[in-house]
Write a structure and sequence with these properties.
Blueprint lengths: L4 H10 L6 H14 L6 E7 L5 E9 L2 E8 L9 H7 L3 E4 L8 H8 L4 E6 L9 E7 L7 H35 L1 H8 L9 E12 L2 H7 L2 H19 L5 E6 L2 E7 L8 H21 L10 E16 L4 E6 L1 H16 L3 E3 L1 H6 L5 E7 L6 E6 L5
Length: 382
Amino acid sequence: MRLSSDFADWLIKTATSEMTVADLHRLLCEKLVSLGLPLWRSSLGLEMLDPEIDGSQIRWLAHEVSTRFMPRGTDYGGSPGPIVDETGQPYRRRLDAPADDMPFLEDLRQMGATDYYIAPLHFLDRQRVANISFATLKPGGFTEREIALLDEATLLFAPCAERYVLRKIAIDLLTTYVGRRSAARIYDGAVERGRPEMITATILIADMRGFTRYSETQPMANVLATLNDFFDALVAAIEPKGGEVLKFIGDALLAIFPAGEGEALPYAATLDAALDARRRIAALNDERPKAQLAPLKFHLALGAGEIAYGNIGSRKRLDFTAIGPAVNATSRLLEIAKTLDQDIVISEAFAKGSASAFVSLGAHELRDIAGMQEIFSVAREA
């Protein structure tokens, strides 16, 4: 016996752009129950393309839904998932006897499960593995007819699920490389060159002091590890404060803190990010000598103003970034920071807009910037 064509129609109409793959999985399970299948538990396993997350498991258990994310390096031993991922074939296990070779299945058996069935989701993109499992509490387990219906439901579910997975992968990849706000704009269609959005923002630019000499005298493994530690500290300070890292350039970083529509510029949040970066790098420097590594020194500049935020580049190769006089002036502040041996320097525009008190470093000429600019710093005890 097969699922009726009404099931396929229902699935196609149900899979809307407003829902997530977890929503769709939940509705699938509830639909199967309504059709009489003795479903107690179902799990949807999806491989992710994320620098920190290896995969996700969306679980439906007696109408309760949960999602678990597995970090990279997760050991999936004791579970039949890797068997299905490697063979591309379904796996079934009746749980009428102890499953000592698979602790996961033994746990289900102890919870009352009598049968377990897991099948691959055959996506067009075979580089990403995905599977869906079903378990029942029904005495005697699933019938062969019920297994056949689960197979058919899986076959129909796969292309709908893949649409959501591909969308999430696209957004996750964009977020990884250009930041969350920029990723959303690009995914929404902001891909045309020469049509930037004019926005006001505070600007944070930072670089590592003495990096060129360090990179010439240290093994490449140390150089890369040091850069990653440096950027980890900066990004961990910037993103929770509402900032968006637009790019890494060698040992430098460019981030913006856009003002929301009708809102004032986030001076306080940007300053908090700069001070948090200082604290994090200081904490990092407390640990580096234990690994026989030299302490990190940095320069960080804060600016503010209107920026052009969008695509620049060639016809076929674009970069989503921020440019404009305010960005240029903030970049030039790093040179003043080096000259005056200051870790954090602040532009006149930022200082005037902020409610915080700063220490004046006097008026200075910024390279290629007309006129003298008063530069400020933040006291160390801040």
